[in-house]
Amino acid sequence: MIKTRVVYLSMAILLLLFVVMYAVLPNVGIETKNTEFSYETIVFNKNKVTTIDIEIAEEDWADMLENAAAEELKKANITVNGKKMENVAIRTKGNLSLRSVVASDSDRYSLKIDFDYYDDTQSLYGLKKINLNNNYSDSTLMREYISYELMEQMGLPTPAHSYMYVTVNGEERGLFLGVEAVDETFLANNYGSNDGFLFKPDGTGSDLKYISDDIADYTGIGLKTNEGNIDQSKFIEMIEAINNGNNIEKYIDVDEMLRYFAVNTALVNLDSYQGNMKHNYYLYEDGGVFSIIPWDYNMSFGGFGVGGGDNNQIQDNANMKAPNDAQINDKSEMKPPNNGKQQRPNGDRNQGGLNMGFGMSGDLMADSAINFSVTTPVSGTALEERPLLNALLSNDEYRAKYEGYLEELATNYLTEDYVKNITKQLALLITTYVEADPTKFSTTEQFIEAVEGENSLPEFAKQRSESILKQLSGELVVEATSQGNMEMPNLDAIGDMDIPMQRPEDFDPSQAPPFNQNGDNQGERSNGGGPMQRPDQNGGPMWPNQGDEQLKQEIVIDNNTILTVIVCFALLIVALLFVFKFKRRGR
What we know:
Layout: H1 4-24, H2 39-42, E1 50-56, H3 58-66, E2 74-80, E3 83-93, H4 96-102, E4 110-114, E5 129-133, H5 143-153, E6 161-168, E7 171-180, H6 184-191, E8 197-199, H7 235-244, H8 254-266, E9 281-286, E10 289-294, E11 311-316, E12 327-329, H9 330-333, H10 367-370, H11 387-393, H12 396-413, H13 416-436, H14 444-449, H15 457-473, E13 476-481, H16 546-551, H17 559-584
Parallel strand pairs: 1-6
Antiparallel strand pairs: 1-2, 2-3, 3-4, 4-5, 5-7, 6-7, 8-9, 9-10, 11-12, 11-13
Helix pairs in contact: 1-17, 8-12, 12-15, 13-15
């Protein structure tokens, strides 16, 4: 016969087990759903600014800044939101932006952090590498962030991204955009496998024009993975297909690429395959089929300048006007470089250094960007010189899909309201950090101007989406006639740009309506669930307690934990029923 105290003891044990499983285990460092990739919610939390503290030998840091163009790796310890990673590799990074900053008086370089360089078993919640982008040439600090958001909305595999505030040896470096590296981890997370071939084209062959049947002749295709098995790649077959009008569906993910080029075109992102530089994209070959991965959007929203020799003639069919002589010439938007040095800000946050260099338009609302052609969406080159895009748009069925995606973007995402929601949310989150940033390229006023007003990202979205819809309907015709590639300016000099410095009169960041990542209004501010962080008396952000910060990290409980909790709860219910019947029988 079972004694009452035995039953109650069993009940107590079951209850304790239930409490432990439900309340304790998810918070003691047990890895969460998709443990390999939990960095997406922990490191790249879009509702707060991640803190990155870099500890590096002073002589190594000084050498890295002095010889930034060398991009030499240095050893450092990195603390991310209180989690310390030792023996980590760090270096400067960039292409045109790196050279431009080297030529200026600034030392605000973008950085690449490699967590597993010295220890290939080491990662940050599954993350192997992270890029800290300095937002060069983007006084809005939002072009790249919003571009990736739109790519995500259109279902494209997109690097994780969020804002991060960086210190080096206790000294503030400022606000950067953290972007996940496109590497084996990214591929495994987004494609379920990283056994294929990852290419980052930049140079000979990056236009994807046919050269020969020897892959060695395509010296700029930038193979990043599986180098030892390159002979098994279908790269040459893909090149032949898109150049010769063969069955391209056999070699490329057509629908994905149509979505990619629709977003790129809508955003007027011309520091890309569609511009004269023919770079800033990845190709991933999996099972002989190529996908495209977006990359590097600090010059989107027309920031690279349209043209390179293109004379875009605009005809307004609604008013039945014949084509006029008005030209949107990209060269008129480019300021010639001078021999002056860019001045970076000192202690006075109202005096920001101008951040515009090679190829960049200082006017966000330039007609050449607003009315960039959606039918011939290239700049500084001819559509025939970009065979991948040409093969897609030469097919009536594919072009119709491409135009459908453009219409979806112009109607749902690249709209004034949608972009305004994002910019106001970001302003609420990061304005304090922008103010505290000691190395920023431009002023807080220039940043705030991007949120609202006549020269803002929402206004660009409004006018650009209207232009897209008019072009698709035939009401507006924009024809581009290519006249060859542009002459490259001197990269050793930085061009001056005139940028308005006034804060919009009706803008109040504290009154910005919060929203979630889908743009929906919420009932309270979204900043990691708490109030907006303010700078301390020294001007630096007031960080929350690191222990509290880690406890606030988003937890995604995996299926095994959920199943265990359910089983324990079921056992608890059965035990309660047993006790009830046991007592009724008088035992």
